[in-house]
Amino acid sequence: MTQPDMPTPPWERPPKRRAPARVPLTRERIVDAAFTVLDREGYDRLSMRQVAAELGVAVSALYVHVRDKDELLQLMYTRMFEGYEVPEPDPERWREQVKDFARQARERLLSRRDLAKLAMGHVPFTPELLPYVERLMAVLGAAGMPRRVLAVSGDMLSTYINGFALEESLWQQRYRETDTSWHKLREEVNEYFASLPPDRFPNLVALSDIMMDESNDYRFELGLEIILRGLASYVGEPDPDEEHEES
Amino acid sequence: MTQPDMPTPPWERPPKRRAPARVPLTRERIVDAAFTVLDREGYDRLSMRQVAAELGVAVSALYVHVRDKDELLQLMYTRMFEGYEVPEPDPERWREQVKDFARQARERLLSRRDLAKLAMGHVPFTPELLPYVERLMAVLGAAGMPRRVLAVSGDMLSTYINGFALEESLWQQRYRETDTSWHKLREEVNEYFASLPPDRFPNLVALSDIMMDESNDYRFELGLEIILRGLASYVGEPDPDEEHEES
DNA sequence: TTGGGAACTGAACAGTGTTCATAGTAAAGT
DNA sequence: ACTTTACTATGAACACTGTTCAGTTCCCAA
After folding, report:
1. Which H or E run includes A121?
2. Res. B242 pLDDT band, cuts 50 70 90
3. CA of B31 to C1' of D9 (A)
4. pLDDT the model gives residue B176
5. Is there contact between A49 and strand D, defined as CB under 7 Å from any strand atom?
6. Is A199 an interface residue toward B (CB < 8 Å)?
7. CA atoms of B128 and B11, how far apart (whole Å)
8. Residue B12 confidence (pLDDT)
9. What is the CA radius of gyration of chain A?
10. A30-39: long-range contacts at Cβ-Cβ below 8 A with a sequence spacing of 24 or more?
């Protein structure tokens, strides 16, 4: 074995990698690195090679631990949920509880770059994520929602949250690329709406001042409230059947 | 110049392309071809080269008419809306009108492969699409919706429709890849939910029979009705302010 | 010490978006 | 009629992408 602290003789080429602590590659570390790349490069530039480079490792090494890029994305997706808090259901406060959940989810989706893009196109039906779905169902179920409404509401909420966050991040991307501020972009868009011919676009012109808000919080909250009012209207009702009554 | 009907002598190499009717390349034709490729190959395999091949043309030729792949996708997105029908607003029938619009949109998103994927990640704010947004606003506005609700509802509806259709197409993709039928996949998923430990997942187990329906129509309609009830609850109310009252 | 098996490498393959000097074509100017 | 001009289309190239695979390297059990 190589004596410690001895200069290696020139004819004996040094070992390619010195012994010290080669941290073994694991799925966890790969996902970590992938998130680092995502933060730095964005979703579109997140590539296996970049992840490998981040770890100082050959690309093909990744494929020992991960079948696909798809699988890696899936792992990132489930990682995203770690530490989510869905409260113990309380029938009195279900609306506030659902809202807290939604706010938490949106906040998380916007906490790192392009997380919304990552989330879009994945269904939260992997074993690790089912507890969260279950808890959300529990909160809504405790409120006294009919079965069929319950079965649909989780999907609805997550669709709304994801969709909203995705749209936010699309605007973010746009003003990142154009190198303008959100404030300026918002102003431009609203001015554009205001400048439309009022005879052909009366509604858009009339609403041009509030189509985009300085902060999106209000729009998010209002949308949420709309869904919640809709859900609340079913509390205590029997399961709706195939026919949907008009008006 | 070359005499007509004369055999070209061997030393004079024939003109690279004979005169006849070279159909000029246009944005329209490129978009057409792109849709053909999309139908055949799916969104992930839709590439500039495939589109070029479809047209029998070099890749770089596309870039004369189209700045980017992004721009091409944008063009496809706006093309998707052609022939949409948003009705003349009728305050008496606004719910049915909105539903018709939503059904029409979903139908269209599912009419061709991966259209939902294409739609996701685009905001319908290009000049060509504004008429549709305006009309939808008109229908909702005629119902007597407060301004701020109006400003948010178009977004909400399109988010819901897109999100729902995207999820549908994700399942479609999954059973296309696994080579099973939708019926079988649905059964497997529901059985999976049913097989969960009932103590930890009481709600999911209880709902396992209706988490996925044989057809998604019912779930779509119910979600739509929930949003509409939420919207309807605002009719006649003044603009909601920043505070959202609980319960 | 000697396997054996897993982890990792490097090179390769087929494909991607995009650019650019060049060749061809058709209309406009002289 | 001939040249100039503007523009479209070409083919090759660049710098990437995901994925595979024959080898090497490494560590641990026998």
Report:
1. none
2. low
3. 18
4. 86
5. yes
6. no
7. 54
8. 43
9. 25
10. A30/A55, A30/A62, A30/A65, A30/A66, A30/A72, A30/A75, A31/A72, A31/A75, A31/A76, A31/A79, A34/A72, A34/A75, A34/A76, A35/A76, A35/A79, A35/A112, A38/A76, A38/A112, A38/A113, A38/A114, A38/A115, A38/A118, A39/A112, A39/A113
Could you identify the residue written with the tokens 């998130």? A35
Instruction: Say how far apart CA A193 and CA A215 lie, in whole Å.
Output: 18
CB burial of residue A195 (10 Å; 0-12, 13-18, 19+): exposed
Please provide the distance, in angstroms rounded to a whole number, between the alpha carbons at the two ends of chain A.
85
Q: Is the pLDDT of residue B243 over 70?
A: no
pLDDT at B7 over 60: no
Quickly state the pLDDT bin for A247 (edges 50, 70, 90): very low
A47-61, A89-103, B47-61, B166-180 — which is least confidently predicted? B166-180
Nearest to B211 by CA among A5, A167, A151: A151
d(CA A107, CA A112): 9
CB < 8 Å to B167, chain A: 123, 155, 159
Answer yes or no: do A242 and B218 touch at CB < 8 A.
yes
**What is the reported pLDDT for A240?**
86
pLDDT at A107 over 90: yes
Asked whether residue B123's C-beta has any atom of DNA/RNA strand D within 7 A, the reply is no
CA distance B94 to chain A (A): 8
